[in-house]
Amino acid sequence: MPTPDELRAAVERYVDAVNGRDPRAIAALFTEDAVQADPASQPPNVGRAAIAAFFEAGIAGSDDWTFTAKDVHTCASTVAIDFAIDVSTGGATMTISGIEVFEVADAGLFSAVHAYWDERDVTVA
User: Fold this and answer.
1) Is residue 114 pLDDT above 90, yes or no?
2) CATH of the domain at 78
3) 124 lies in a domain?
4) pLDDT band at 9, cuts 50/70/90?
5) If you count DSSP H runs as helices and E runs as strands, how many of each does the chain have, helices first?
6) How many domains does the chain have?
7) How far apart, in whole angstroms, are the C-alpha atoms of residue 49 and residue 8?
8) pTM value surpassing 0.85
9) Dihedrals φ, ψ of 13, to 5°?
10) In terms of residue numbers, what domain contains 26?
11) Are 11 and 83 in contact (CB under 8 A)?
12) pLDDT value at position 102?
């Protein structure tokens, strides 16, 4: 079972990869059969290729973004983060705030992540 420090390090790698806007680097942080749902109410992306495609679409639809893990909470092999992502497109910035809950496998890779947010968590400036 990963330690709290290992869970926090996994989140740091995720934040760095998401901010690097490299879908393959992001997907490499997940197990081959990982499940990712963002938001959790949507059908999940299953597997690295689907996760990479999800991030490719987000990158293609934006000029830039900044992803922040404001608070990190660990428990056993689970880590939850209070996050915000500021997405810039065409001179406007959309901010999504929410919670992401990750399951971390023994190898330190994510086996699942579910993001919890809805339209009330989205602001546009």
Assistant:
1) yes
2) 3.10.450.50
3) no
4) very high
5) 3, 7
6) 1
7) 25
8) yes
9) -65, -40
10) 4-118
11) no
12) 98
Query: What single-letter amino acid sits at 80?
Result: A
Q: Token pair 């001179």 is at which residue?
A: 91
Q: Mind telling me the catalytic residues?
A: 14, 38
Is residue 39 included in any domain, yes or no?
Answer: yes
Q: Which amino acid is at 74?
A: T
pLDDT in tens, 42-93: 999 999 999 999 999 999 999 999 999 999 999 999 999 999 999 999 999 9
Q: Are 109 and 30 in contact (CB under 8 A)?
A: yes
pLDDT category, 106, cuts 50, 70, 90? confident
Provide the pLDDT confidence category of residue 3 given band limits of 50, 70 and 90. very high
Question: Other CB atoms closer than 10 Å to residue 43's CB: what's the count?
Answer: 6
Tokens matching residue 38: 């963002």
Q: Is residue 104 part of a domain?
A: yes
Query: Would 125 be classed as within a structural domain?
Result: no
| Cβ atoms within 10 Å, residue 20 | 11
69 contacts: CB under 8 Å, gap ≥ 6:
11, 12, 14, 15, 81, 82, 83
List the end-to-end C-alpha distance of the chain, in Å, as a whole number. 42
